[in-house]
Automatic annotation (TrEMBL):
Cited InterPro entries: SusD-like_2, TPR-like_helical_dom_sf
UniProt-recorded name of the protein: SusD/RagB family nutrient-binding outer membrane lipoprotein
Sorted UniProt keywords: Lipoprotein
Pfam families the record matches: SusD-like_2
SUPFAM superfamilies for the chain: TPR-like
Amino acid sequence: MVNLMNEKEDTRQPSYFVAFPYNSDSYKGSTVLDFEPSAQYSRLHSYLKGTPSAVSQEMINEDGSLEGGATTYGGDAPSRLLLYSEYNFIRAEAALRLGASGNAETFFQEGIKASMAYAGVPAYVAEFGSLVGTEEEMLEQIINQKYIANFGVLMENWTDWRRAGFPDITPIPTPIAVYNEVPRSLFYPFNEVSSNPNIEQKESLQERVF
């Protein structure tokens, strides 16, 4: 997420993440695949966690990371379920791929604007709001922006990835994870299979639902 937003100097980052180094305008992502995991990365911020407390200078380490407990949050951020931004990205995809009414780029831009408004930051539609390339490339633009806009919305981004394949995700391999790929579906549970003789269990977690 951080890397995807860094590519476009995304103005939502100050709402989504704590800068690293602290008090800079830089953001650094982190993954369990990092060769040397450390505390030197951007943490989740007010968009998901609510109003932050002030950070005292003595709680900022020399490398720009924060001491544990350097800031607390009010927990007053809303639980986001179905957003107006998501609605517009859905309509953008429908117009692009299915010939649904309306203009895909107009919906795409409206989705970006709505997401920026939720984050309380200026929109960058003028620079990044044009759909360009092949249909597949335009779809990737739509899904990537939908992915950013749905930050903190459970399940939707996984569902979009399994049907569209975007954004480009690097799976976490075993033994760090229990499975080498991003699952596209889940096995039917034992109690369903044992109770319903008509169920045919899936052969792998890569079988598509869509």
